[in-house]
Amino acid sequence: MKHSDQKIALAGDIGGTKTNLGLFVRGEDRPSMLLMESYSSPDAAGLSELISRFVKAHPRSISSACFGIAGPVIDGRSKATNLPWEVSEAEIKRTFNWEEVQLINDLAATAVAVPLLQDHELHALNSAPAEPGNIGLVAPGTGLGVSLLALVDGKLRPLASEGGHVDFAPRNDDEVDLWRSLRVSQDHVSVERLVSGPGIYAIYSWIKKRDGYEEPEWFIEKMELNDPPAVISEAALVERLQPCIKTLELFASILGAVAGNLALTGMTTGGMYIGGGIVPKILPVFEESNFMKAFTDKGRFRELLSGIPVHVILNDRAALLGAAWSALGGCKDGVGP
Asked: Which pLDDT tens digit goes with each residue over 246-270?
């Protein structure tokens, strides 16, 4: 069947930093993307503005749409966590005269994509064989997303979550000191305050102060002109600056602990997945870190957690893929091809 004869769906992945919009049709095993555009989220007044720009640039007959948004979705409405946006299915339907519009949590959208991912889109941190069961997902980016795929009656069903905002639980004296440094300016120190892009900067700032580190001039200039978490990550990977390496190692360790907690909470014997845009970019340091030690360091349940496969998602369009699968009706009887 030609693309012009197929049902075309609009999918969106709406994050605090950028919004990806794409057109999809059904593929052999998963949605096939026709085209995609990426927009700066903070530069727009709302999602409808970006959709308008997209459909004007790419006029098509759109039969359905699904948007994964970083924030809780209740009764078809969402107030984005890291954006001053309020989005609703009803408003999008009215504005664009579309009958089928879904608004879902962005991590639920990524979770939908997990069974659709191919081997080359995954990087194994723990290659244990998966057992039938629930699947967990944590995704650090502008914020920290958390989701589960629950195995119900033999079908995987995505569960939206705001688990990134649970309390940060320090595991040693250093992390207690880190918590205290954040508590000075934050009423609530959530895991998102540390396991995210801004969290990388928060950890680095604490290490810099603790160690009395004097930054090189070139590093100071880069930090003033560019995104600090990206500068810190690059300095760890390329220039091998020790405070930056320590930052990423602690970031990975805290993420490992968070992922291990979710694995226990959700009994994710089907596997744990690390999504988001940060970890794939820092894999060399990440693999040298004690992520897996922190993941399994749960006392009497160390053996159970050691048997759970853990993978990093390398496909940076996974949430968009999951939204497209939902828009094309792929989730009606559970997730997966």
From this structure: 999 999 999 999 999 999 999 999 9
Question: What phi and psi, each to the nearest 5 degrees, are found at residue 14?
Answer: -105, 110
Dihedral angle computed from the Cα positions of residues 104, 108, 109 and 110, in that order, rounded to the nearest 10 degrees: 160
Mean pLDDT of the chain: 93
Q: How far is CA 33 from CA 19, 30, 72, in A?
A: 16, 10, 26
* Cα–Cα distance measured from residue 159 to residue 150, given in angstroms and rounded to the nearest whole number: 7
Q: Which residues of the chain have pLDDT under 70?
A: 1-5, 330-337
Per DSSP, the three-state class of 272 is strand
CATH topology for 3-115+317-327 is Nucleotidyltransferase; domain 5 (3.30.420)
- Please state, in angstroms and rounded to a whole number, the distance separating the CA atoms of residues 115 and 127: 16
CA dist list (Å): 193 to 82, 101, 145 = 12, 32, 12
Domain definitions of the chain by residue range:
3-115+317-327, 163-313
163-313 — its CATH code? 3.40.367.20
Give the sign of the dihedral formed by CA 70, CA 86, CA 199, CA 284. Answer: positive
Query: Residue 300 burial (CB < 10 Å; 0-12/13-18/19+)?
Result: exposed
**Beta strand pairing status for 122-126 and 135-140?**
unpaired
Burial of 165 by CB count in 10 Å (0-12 exposed, 13-18 middle, 19+ buried)?
middle
For 280-328, how does the pLDDT look when each residue is reduced to its tens digit (9 = 90+)?
Answer: 999 999 999 999 999 999 999 999 999 999 999 999 999 999 999 999 9
What six digits make up the tokens of 123?
């990087």
Check residue 5 and give its pLDDT. 58
The two three-digit tokens of residue 209, written as one number: 């102060």
The rounded distance, in Å, linking the Cα atoms of 257 and 170 is: 10
